[in-house]
Amino acid sequence: MAEGPTHSPIPWETLEALLHRVQKPARYVGGEFNAVIKDWDAMPLHVCLAFPDLYELGMSNFALQIFYDLLNRRSDTLAERAYLPAPDMNAALRAAHLPLYTLESYRPVAAFDLLAISTAYEQLYTNLLEFLDLAGLPVESTARDERHPLVIGGGHGAFNPEPLADFVDAFVIGEGEAVLEELVTALLAIPAADRETQLDALVALPGVYVPRRYRPIYAADGRFQALEPRDAHTPARITKRILPQLPPTPVRQLVPNVDTVHNRAVIELQRGCSNGCRFCQAGIITRPIRERPPAEVLADVRAVTDATGYEEVALLSLSSADYTDIAALLEALQTAYASEHISFSLPSLRLDAFSVELADALSQGRRSGFTFAPEAATDALRARINKNIRTETVLEVAEMVFTRGWRTVKLYFMIGLPGESDEDVQEIVELAHQILRIGRQARGRKVEVHVSVNTFVPKPHTVFQWEPLADEETVLRRQAILQQGLRARGLRLAWHDYAESQLEALLARGDRRLAPVVKRAWELGARFDAWDEWRNPAAWEQAIAESGLDVAAYVGRRYAISEPLPWEHLDSGVNLRYLQEDYMRSQRGELLPDCRVQCHGCGILQHYASLQEECWQCPTRP
Ligand code: SF4
């Protein structure tokens, strides 16, 4: 890309003059341990990796660290980072007429060839627009051309990106690492091409979705019908990309300048999950399971701790206790690193005795809080959501936790689940009290039980994708049951406002007609939708009212099982028949065993025929 005056790095003195006026200026200066500085002029391709939220969250995003590592390993590519500044720094940049810049070289984001931006979850969508605008880029993709970076989104939100269809040039569906080589090759081959030629090159890449090349069709009653390719070269369906094995662990991980959400090294232990929870989007879209071999984990711990100085390593996974022979791996890790005081954490444990044993072995006397996610309080409702755990086991595990020295137990539940009654919610109250009593018997009066309750939001590609969000009256009534029932000393309750869940559901299920609403809400001041101190429900209310869209038709309606869905052109690899059959099983209250015990033929392996040889995971595949 040609270098103009607006593409030169911002001088340090200019930035320094702003930094003493904002909170946590270390967020905006870069220079982190392990940051990579490359020669701009020597690199043919310049990539800005972006997470459109605060530095602290962006630095904890492991996907961004993987891409930073993979791209900067290349001799033809430079990758730098940018996050969305907090409102005070945002205002300071705007007042000084300075654009958003990358942390490595202070070069404007607009100078890069490619802006790869995370669309991990719905609450980032207005931030994405703010990010583009602060970078001096037109927010609508049709208003940008080859003088601007290509904007490519990715992450879990990309599995229904229609509410962002007007703003993002292309989305990678699935694992970006699997597309990276082809994407870089394609972009290097068209350095000076016009935007339409660039988009042609992206359309030709498997797993890349270019929204502008599709036309939405709606029925006379307003319902979504289909997305039609605009030309013969554009595929009707995009199948997600996956890697046969996990990518190499980024060794020289960035060490943040300020305290972040997770301040430790990370090794991805496995991708995918075999539990089959019917509400869980990650469990479907990250299939199949792929584990990092134990010898590689052991070697990675050495390399990562040497390169970062971290003394804690998180072993990342959707369900760590399911990793094959996790106990042996932990023992080997603890034996190997005992003398160096390196500790290990497993972020997502199951609700069983085995997981308590694992946490006990890892905690080395630190007993801050033990987290469980029963999700529902009755056996029948847990069977509907395919959470295969009985109440008596929950109580036994709680007793084990308190007996082993923990004083605080954190419980995660959902309300508004399909088939739920007020009585099911009352059972959450009873269960929390029972656990508190067990804790007091074991540890005395100082124990605490924290109950965190989310409202169920139906997500695309899940078994519950056809289900509605519960209506406001029902959710408020059930929240009131919890508020009244969980008032005792030693109990704490946290919940979400209904408006937050409704917005999440609207954006998760939305079609392309939501894009102007996202833009209008942003124009009216909506951003940081996940932040209590900054979110702006009034802006959303006004934007929705002006649009005339019927929110209830999007979020409050049970979709027919045969109905066209706005995300069905994006293929998670799990076939529709499997989702439909499991939906029926849910309505009959039937559990589906973990697919490490028995394969249910979800379709993922038929889709990726080559993986049947290469991928030794999916342990029970036929
Ligand atoms: S193919 Fe079988 S084992 Fe693999 S994810 Fe699907 S159901 Fe599970």
> In the CATH scheme, what's the topology name of the domain at 5-233?
Rossmann fold
Principal-axes geometry comes out as: globular
Question: Which structural class do the helices and strands define?
Answer: alpha/beta
SS strand fraction: 5-15%
Rg, Cα atoms, Å: 24 Å
Ligands (ions, cofactors included): iron/sulfur cluster
CATH level 1 class label of the domain at 5-233: Alpha Beta
What is the overall number of helices?
22
Terminal-residue CA separation: 50 Å
DSSP strand count: 19
Structural features, described:
With 622 residues, the protein is of the alpha/beta class. It has a domain at 5-233: Cobalamin-binding domain (Rossmann fold, 3-Layer(aba) Sandwich). The chain is 36% helix and 14% strand. The chain is built from 22 helices and 19 strands. A 6-stranded mixed β-sheet has the order 2-1-3-4-5-6. Helix 5 packs across helix 17. The protein is globular and about 70 Å long. 47% of the residues are buried. The chain binds iron/sulfur cluster. Iron/sulfur cluster is lined by residues 274, 287-288, 595, 599-602, 604-605, 618, 620-621.
Describe what is shown at a glance:
The chain is α/β, with parallel strands linked by helices.
List the helices and strands and how they pair.
Blueprint: H1 12-19, E1 45-51, H2 55-59, H3 62-72, E2 77-83, H4 87-95, E3 114-118, H5 125-134, E4 150-154, E5 170-172, H6 176-189, H7 195-203, E6 208-209, E7 214-218, E8 224-229, E9 238-239, E10 265-268, E11 270-271, H8 281-285, E12 290-291, H9 294-308, E13 312-316, H10 326-337, E14 343-345, H11 353-363, E15 370-375, H12 379-385, H13 391-403, E16 408-415, H14 422-443, E17 448-455, H15 472-485, E18 491-495, H16 498-509, H17 515-523, H18 537-547, H19 551-555, E19 570-571, H20 576-587, H21 604-607, H22 609-614
Iron/sulfur cluster binds next to helix 21.
